[in-house]
Specification:
The protein is α+β, with helices and mostly antiparallel strands and about 675 residues long. Helix content is about 30%, strand content about 25%. Strand 11 and strand 12 form a beta hairpin. Helix 3 crosses helix 12, helix 4 packs antiparallel against helix 16 and helix 9 packs antiparallel against helix 10. It is globular. About 50% of the residues are buried.
């Protein structure tokens, strides 16, 4: 694309664009737009715009990057200024009749940040997409989260979306707009920086929302800063796993209910919100620790792990509710036990429970899983595979009003596991196919809830691809689509409101929740080794995000938090919540024992099966399983990623010995006991 500066019908200046189509430049954005829509441009240079008012002045630099342009604006204010800060790329003039019918019917729009199923947005990737059939142009606008110091609570106030205006002239476009009726923001005296990026390209055919999403994520990938913030006191995740194992034996982690012991949800004494006081325990906590612990001890036998596993295994039959073909989340039993939040049930009873049954050879647990899967299948059939947020196992019907459609990916994963456990009997892969087909027919914005739901959906689709099931289904593409949607729930930039940690690479814990959580962060990554082994998804971007998270997740632990925020014992158990510009809660909810298992996952993923000697370089184990049953193999495979701008030499240490490697800048290299292959 190329950018022009032109007169805006008078004494002011505006931006217009053209895109390349075949050998010609054709108009794209012709309506004229400004860096900040409400600020008129009275001065223009080759790559600048500027303007002024009675007691304020602004100046914008325009510069190219990654096939698009940044608009970087400094507003200097001498007296308080009330400003509508909307930043809009106006595309073209409006035809009233067409706009109300065929025009909007042929647009493809992706709004941002992602939303929950009630439509409430969160604070993840603020990048939107608009395909305009009238100009055969796709437009992408990105508003990085670190450019909002002028807006307290940031994305509580703004969304990226399409916009239609009728005054002073009819026109349409896409940009960042205020959500509330009061669109003015008070800028106090001083300097205020506004920054956004956009690109446009010719596109002949109207894209599906999934095709639009691929274009959006792939266009933005070069803008992610992949260099992690490495904490000088960080320890390897394998060492952290040993400390977590010690902490899990602490009395503050356990609670006794009706004479039975179980891991409580939060470490006693760690919650400022009182979440460490309940007298029962949850299935989610026991299985969150048990599944990765059983895998971890395959590579690192430890009598402490054996004792903890036996203690946790003893709790699992307490959650069985065979009268409903259901596994409940709470103990002791209570009235209303059959009511569920569907993602809790489907992730724990249909994925983690069968894995534990497989790894231990426990037939009773396998029976619990098969019964639960039978109940889940009834819910799937009752809802046409469009799963609700809440349901009741007493009749396997939805409750309340909202959907949580992407739990269909959890259901599909359970079906994939059942297929392997039953030797192909039961028609479970057919169920997985039906669930994933329905899921992928829905637009992406209807699938955002817990981000790991999308990873399990991707892993299930990738399994179908590897097995050659219904080759015309395009399962590799479907898996990549779910993965890119999960990446839209990631944090792509720093957050100046909370300088004590770097959120890049983390994930919004749940759509609209507006903070990252350690459990969801790591659970998103569990599927990635299987995906990357199958060459599914944007490998360099996935590697960069995994590496950022590997380095930045230490922020959830006591040694890396400000001292005044640390509460209770067990410093190797992660806190649930970190603050963001939108959410002031910082280590407030407590140390989540239902996220402690992710320390063992982190060790398996990052350095427990093999490691490199450069702290900023990723060593991702490709042998960590997600939906494909099997032990961790003896010969190890790794994906190495260098985030630096120069070639890095390193030593890879595995059980087979040491290897010297050189990794090109910002490149992915596959390595094993044999040769390495760059990508």
């Amino acid at each position: 694309m190329r950018l022009g500066i032109t007169r805006d019908g008078g004494a002011t200046w505006a931006l217009v664009t053209e895109v390349r189509h075949d050998a010609e430049w054709v108009p794209a954005a012709t309506a004229g737009f400004r860096p900040i829509d409400s600020l008129e441009s009275s001065e223009a240079g080759a790559d600048t715009l500027a303007g002024a008012g009675p007691e304020w002045r602004w100046h914008a630099r325009i510069f190219p990057e990654a096939g698009g342009f940044w608009l970087d604006t400094l507003v200097q204010v001498e007296q308080p200024l009330d400003l509508n800060p909307a930043m809009i790329l106006w595309i073209a003039a409006l035809d009233d009749l067409n706009a109300r019918q065929a025009h909007t019917w042929r647009q493809t729009v992706l709004r941002a940040p992602t939303v929950n199923q009630g439509g409430l947005p969160g604070n993840d990737l603020a990048a939107g997409y608009l395909y305009d059939h009238a100009t055969s142009t796709e437009t992408i606008c990105y508003f990085p989260g670190d450019a909002f110091l002028w807006a307290p609570r940031r994305f509580y106030h703004f969304t990226v979306r399409e916009v239609t205006a009728y005054r002073p002239v009819g026109r349409y476009g896409i940009g960042l707009l205020p959500n509330a009726p009061d669109v003015l923001f008070r800028l106090e005296p001083g300097d205020h920086r506004f920054r956004w990026w956009f690109t446009q390209r010719h596109r002949a055919a109207i894209p599906s929302p999934w095709e639009a999403q691929q274009a959006l994520v792939d266009a933005l990938a070069p803008l992610l800063d992949p260099a992690p913030s490495v904490h000088p006191d960080a320890v390897p995740w394998q060492a952290m796993a040993g400390r977590t194992l010690d902490d899990l034996g602490h009395d503050a982690c356990w609670v006794t209910a009706q004479g039975r012991d179980g891991l409580r949800a939060y470490v006693r004494g760690s919650s400022a919100a009182g979440r460490d006081t309940p007298r029962g325990f949850e299935l989610m906590t026991q299985l969150d620790v048990l599944w990765p612990l059983l895998l971890w001890r395959q590579a690192h036998p430890d009598p402490r792990a054996d004792a903890l596993a036996e203690r946790l295994l003893a709790t699992l039959p307490l959650f069985d509710r065979p009268q409903w073909d259901y596994v409940a989340n709470g103990f002791p039993p209570r009235d209303g036990d059959s009511f569920m939040d569907t993602w809790y049930f489907l992730e724990n009873a249909l994925i983690k429970l069968p894995w534990v049954a497989y790894l231990t050879g426990d037939g009773a647990l396998l029976t619990m899983f098969r019964n639960a899967l039978r109940g889940a299948r009834q819910l799937a059939h009752n809802t046409g595979y469009v799963f609700p947020l809440f349901a009741n196992a007493a009749d396997w019907e939805p409750r309340a009003s909202l959907l949580n459609a992407s739990v269909g990916g959890l259901y599909a994963a359970g079906c994939v596991l059942a297929h392997q456990l039953d030797g192909g009997a039961g028609g479970w892969l057919d169920e997985a196919v039906r669930a994933l087909r329905v899921l992928h027919r829905l637009p992406p914005h209807q699938l955002t809830h817990e981000p790991q739901q999308l990873s399990f959906a991707a892993a299930s689709a990738a399994y179908l691809h590897r097995q050659g099931i219904d080759p015309g289904g395009g399962w590799a593409r479907v898996a990549a689509d779910f993965t890119r949607l999960a990446l839209r729930m990631a944090y792509w930039s720093r957050d100046p409101a909370v300088p004590s940690y770097d959120p890049r690479g983390m994930f919004q814990a749940c759509a609209s929740l507006c903070y990252p959580a350690y459990k969801e962060n790591v659970e998103v990554l569990i599927a990635w080794p299987e995906l990357l082994r199958s060459e599914i998804g944007p490998a360099p971007l996935m590697a960069a995000v995994a590496n950022l998270q590997r380095c930045h997740n230490v922020a959830f632990f006591d040694p890396f938090l400000p001292a005044d925020l640390r509460r209770g014992p067990c410093p190797a158990i992660p806190y649930e919540d970190l603050a963001t510009a939108e959410s002031a809660s910082m280590a407030h909810l407590g140390k989540e024992l239902y996220g402690a298992g992710e320390v063992f996952w982190s060790a398996l993923l990052f350095d427990g099966l093999g490691a490199v000697d450069q702290p900023d370089v990723l060593c991702l184990s490709l042998d960590v399983p997600c939906v494909e049953l099997g032990p961790i193999p003896g010969e190890r495979r790794f994906l190495l990623y260098n985030p630096a701008a120069e070639t890095r030499g390193l030593t890879l240490t595995t059980p087979a010995g040491e290897r010297e490697l050189a990794i090109p800048p910002r490149a992915v290299v596959w390595a094993s006991g044999g040769a390495s292959a760059p990508s």
